[in-house]
Amino acid sequence: MSIAFEQGLKFVSDNMGAALGGQMSQLWIDTINSQIESISNDIMAKVQSTDLPADKLQGFVAEIWHSGTFNADSAVHHFVATAKAPDVNTYASADVEFGGSRASLKYYKDAKSSYAAQSETPYERYMHLKAKAEKAGKSYESLDEFLGKRKIKKEDMHKSMYQGQAKLIPTNQLLDAQNLIDKKIAVAQANGKLDQVARYKEVQATLTDILSDKKGNKSIPLSREDAQRLTRAAKEGNLDQELLSECGLDINQLVTAKDIMSEAFSAGLSAAVISFVIGIAPTIIDGISMLVSEGEIDPKLFAEMGYKGLSSAARGFINGSITAALVACCQSGKLGTTLMGANASMISTAVVLMIGTLESGIRLATGRINKAQMAEEMSRLYITTAFSVGGGIAASVWFVEIPPLAMAAYMLGSFIGGVIGGFAYNIGHSLFMSFCVDSGCTFFGLVDQNYELPQEILDEIGIDVFEYEKFDYESFQYDSFQLDSFTPDAFEYDKFGITIIRRGVIGVGKIGYQY
Length: 515
Prior knowledge:
By secondary structure, this protein is mainly alpha-helical.
């Protein structure tokens, strides 16, 4: 496996968490925004498709509002949107269906009217329709026929028509309606009308101003006045985000700090898994090669694999969590409206560069690396990051209409870009150092141009260099002559040799003379 590939792979395994966390958070925010936009579009379409006046349409708008905001809240919690307004107007039909449950919705002029409509019995509905027909001079079917057509048992004709359904009314009417029911229950109990007590208690237990399921997803409360404001704005064609926000619907209000931390934690775990898999890939390859060639496994290899995997997973978790939280905070408006358009790729890039710079800066401050080594690390980080982010963006563009595929494409493109970035940096660094060798340029001290001859060359050409730091004087030795041991000096001819030296890279960011 080439050094450039290993370097590119290591970069991706360490920093994929930031890119993945950013993309996951971006997809999450985009899904929520899509639900909000859908609510606005559905209200506009419903109101403008009918000739009814605005004051007759607030109920239809409330149906769209509650089903839509329930779906938006489901998107915040990563649940599939299930609420819908079936637009069916038959006897006791549900106005909204959600998560296997049903809801009746009544947005009348006051709490008494909304409550009365929700607590109406089949018998009361029959008497109302019969009186209306007789007033128009028409006959009406018998009670038995009425109950039979609707498959209602006689013992149930004094129960609420909407028994078993959630009963939605405007949020500003809920307290008054609950107080009214308390009075109805007290009167019914005093008169011994137990069937009415049971009906009122069932209505009281199911009367609400929101849709809510057992998973914690819920709609946003809506007053009758706000429903009318939405209706009028849609009728006039100027339903905007400002009005939606005033009614309680915008991503800043929908997404809480708890939701952001939950998303960040989820993204961090996903990023850790991806980083773990990528980070241990070279070790797995080495292990397979060893098995093939030797037929046995070195225990040290597995120890090394575990260490590398944990390191990459930890880095992926940290980077992914930080980036996911930043993207969600920016695009949900938690950091102000100015940053709501911040791009996830740019945020993830900033996180990678920030953490990489901090790491190198700490090592420089503690003396583990010098200035030239830090400059090389920063150059490698910036170039590889640029290639990785560029590769991810280029790959995801092809699947922009399919968000899950776009995220997978981004990851693959980022991986390939990171590897290519490793090769690109090595090539560029070699060209840069070659230029510095030829020109003598130091680039403001980032490259150390050393013009001292190596000691090996000095020794070879016979030059003694006076080093005052290491000065050591010679002791005086007088000459002595011993006749018996006299030995004549042998003649040695001088040898002539040529050694060619050149300038080249002799260390990280260091250029000097070498053979």
